[in-house]
Amino acid sequence: MTQDPLDRGVRRAYDTVAADYAAHLPDTRAEAPLDLAMLDAFVEAVSAGAERPRVLDAGCGTGRIGRYLAARGCAVEGVDLSPAMAVEARHARPDLPVVVGSLAALPYAAARFDGVLLWYSIIHAPPALHPALFAEAARVLRPGGHLLVGFQHGAGTRDVSAAYRAFGHEVVLERHLVTADEVGAGLAAAGLGEVSRMVRRPRSGERDDQAAVLARRTAS
Ligand SMILES: C[S@@+](CC[C@H](N)C(=O)[O-])C[C@H]1O[C@@H](n2cnc3c(N)ncnc32)[C@H](O)[C@@H]1O
Questions:
Q1: In the 3-class helix/strand/coil scheme, how is 78-129 assigned residue by residue?
Q2: What is the mean pLDDT of residues 120-139?
Q3: Is there an atom of ligand 1 within 6 Å of 7 CB?
């Protein structure tokens, strides 16, 4: 397990809120139709040429999105920094493998997956670190495989401690906003060509624009 101080803070925060996160956000009900459309486009992309595509839910949390993908035919594995979030994911679907690990050093062999999902899991890493996280995701993706990134769109940093305190816990946590152009550039530098992007305005209860970028690992 990583000793990175930033990761330690994120892990501590999610370990603290894990049970309440699972209870309050059990499925994809918080996702807008456009978010689900991007997840569905990802499923379609990874399913081309693979009957049961192998997909990594990277930063899977409680596994709610992995379960959405599994219900659509993907063989989903999960990895998360927070042992308590991983426990929740395993509790909900004991048949879906979940390990504890970092996006910065994924515990998988190269080219193992047809698809990698980074659904709001890069948001706590400063944008300067994103290219390294995309390169690590690209490493475990087979040539021609697809990556989908979901994130809050914009610039700057938000202190989200209060939102997580709403669960009744004391946590210190911030998230970083980036633009789809910045994400697209980081993906390109990692050998991931952009396929499509979605940027939408905030819905009720959301503070920022939301975005998702779908990319494909170049064949070489
Ligand atoms: C906002 S939650 C999203 C969880 C899940 N993807 C979902 O949509 O419900 C962020 C998750 O990313 C995980 N995470 C954040 N940074 C990570 C890192 N560097 N390596 C692995 N997991 C990380 C956290 O532990 C947390 O479970």
A1: EEECCHHHHHHHHHHCCCCCEEECECCECCCCCCCEEEEEEECCCCCCCHHH
A2: 97
A3: yes
173 lines ligand 1 (CB under 6 A): no
On the 0-12 / 13-18 / 19+ scale of CB atoms within 10 A, 116 is buried
Higher pLDDT, 163 or 124: 124
Task: Report how far ligand 1's centroid is from the alpha carbon of 79 (Å).
Answer: 9
**128 confidence band (pLDDT: 50, 70, 90):** very high
Tokens 């305005």, located at residue: 201
Is the pTM for the entire model greater than 0.90?
yes
For the Cβ of 66 lying below 6 angstroms from any atom of ligand 1, the answer is no
Collapsing DSSP states into helix, strand and coil, what is residue 56? Answer: strand
Q: Residue 2: what pLDDT?
A: 42
Residues with Cβ within 8 Å of 50's Cβ and at least 6 positions away in sequence, in order, are: 114
